[in-house]
Amino acid sequence: MHHLGIAVIVFACVFGSALLGLYLHSLLPERHLSDESVGVIKLTIGLIATMAAIVLGLLISSAKSSFDTANTAVVRDATHIILLDRTLAQYGPETQEIRTLLKQFVARGIQKATSGDPDQLASMRSPEELRRGENIQRRLAELSPHSEEQRRLQAVAIQLASEGLAMRELALLQAAGSTPMSLLITLVLWLCIIFGSFGLFTSPNTTVTTTFFLGAVSTSIAIFLILEMNTPLGGSITVSLAPVREALTMLGQ
After folding, report:
1. Residues of the chain with pLDDT > 90: what percent?
2. From CA 220, how far away is CA 22, in angstroms rounded?
3. Nearest-5° Cα angle at 192, 44 to 37
4. Averaged pLDDT, 137-150
5. What's the whole-number mean pLDDT along residues 121-139?
6. CA distances (Å), 235 to each of 11, 133, 207, in order?
7. Distance between CA atoms of 229 and 245, rounded to whole angstroms?
8. How many CB atoms lie within 10 A of CB 165?
9. What is the mean pLDDT of residues 114-133?
10. In a 3-state reduction of DSSP, which class is residue 1?
11. For position 125, what pLDDT does the model report?
12. Separation of alpha carbons 222 and 108, rounded Å
């Protein structure tokens, strides 16, 4: 809802700038609308439009990259969870308690990630949750292998747990969002200038107003998508947790 509110504000600013330009068009003296003046202004607006297009493209590319990274981290985390559980199963019955802790840890993470509550998502990065993961690593290190095969499985389990915890932290860091607000404000300011200039040198009519409306809607949707993809575990556009849920059903078997 926070991102939707920002998108609505962006729409209001951009569309309002276009309407303001249409209003000022009727107030400007003719000398301000000469071919020479219009030519200079078009060159300036063209420069601003180019910068805005570059920044918008970079923001979309960065947001998509963050989303894909988080999605990859979720898939890898699910893979590590399954491999860790199967490795512990091969080790022997003395790892049953660790496997139970692992299943509880994964179930708790899924419940918080799907809650939609920002506080729940924030708690996944808390020191308490980190200590739960470290507790599993410590219990793995405290195992007392009785054969060469068990020593090998213990080493593999410790490595899988470390990599899985690292993948989980990476996904959480990606989910925290990384859109610089100053850059976003600058982009919106440029869009307002561009749309305002469009209205300034255009006679008002229904077709023009509708075009401005659609343009403002399109830009606000782009901003909304950028913000949503930069928070892939919260909002309306999220990474799929189906791989982790599938992994959970396989734990302890």
Report:
1. 21
2. 20
3. 30
4. 87
5. 76
6. 19, 26, 35
7. 21
8. 19
9. 71
10. coil
11. 67
12. 33
Distance, in Å, from the CA atom of 233 to the CA atom of 171, rounded to the nearest integer, reads 9
Contact assessment for residue 160 and residue 99, using Cβ atoms and an 8 Å cutoff: no
* Domains in the chain: boundaries: 2-24+33-250
Mean pLDDT of the chain: 84
pTM score of the predicted model = 0.77
Q: Which of 130, 128, 139 is nearest to 96 (CA)?
A: 139
Of 80, 106, 104, 84, nearest to 95 by C-alpha is 84
Model pLDDT, residue 173? 60
d(CA 198, CA 207): 13
Alpha helices (H) along 92-147: 96-113, 118-123, 127-141
Dist CA 24 CA 201 (whole Å):
9
**Cβ distance 99 to 175 under 8 Å?**
no
Whether 106 and 245 have beta carbons less than 8 Å apart is answered as no
Phi, psi of 70 (to 5 degrees): -65, -40
According to the model, what pLDDT value does residue 174 have? 56
Q: How many CB atoms lie within 10 A of CB 45?
A: 20
